[in-house]
Description:
The chain has helices at residues 22-32, 36-49, 61-75, 81-89, and strands at 6-9, 12-15, 96-99. It has 144 residues and is mainly alpha-helical. A three-stranded antiparallel sheet has the order 2-1-3.
Amino acid sequence: MTQEAGFKIGERVYPVPSGFRWVDTVLVERLTGLKFTEYGDRYDAMQAEMELPEADRQMDPIVVLGLIAASVWQANPTWTRERVEKFVGALEIDQVEEVKEETADDDPPAAGEEKASPTSSETASPSLEPESGETTPDSPGLPG
Length: 144
């Protein structure tokens, strides 16, 4: 059984986004008070921390706030930005539990077997780039 990484709020798990939508950038800016480019820099720094042993990692609470907000909105795409802001803004820190990704392959290998390495898609982090299929100012057919 596979469980996606995410944030558990109440009884529901909101998966960590695989990427940010254009509208997510506005939400992240409004909730964190950071320009999205600065948020991206802090996100990248936090991702670099993930390479360290768990005891040495330092999570950036502002980056986590942005990830929680994007997770909630992507799980509830019909909600307005204001509704997401109110929902996330009303959360107490101890109401949010980090859920780590688990797969059936997380069981230790039997004696003499090697555990397969995860593929790049299994270890992928949310991207600050538009998801494939989304148009950008550089996409063919758009002015600019």
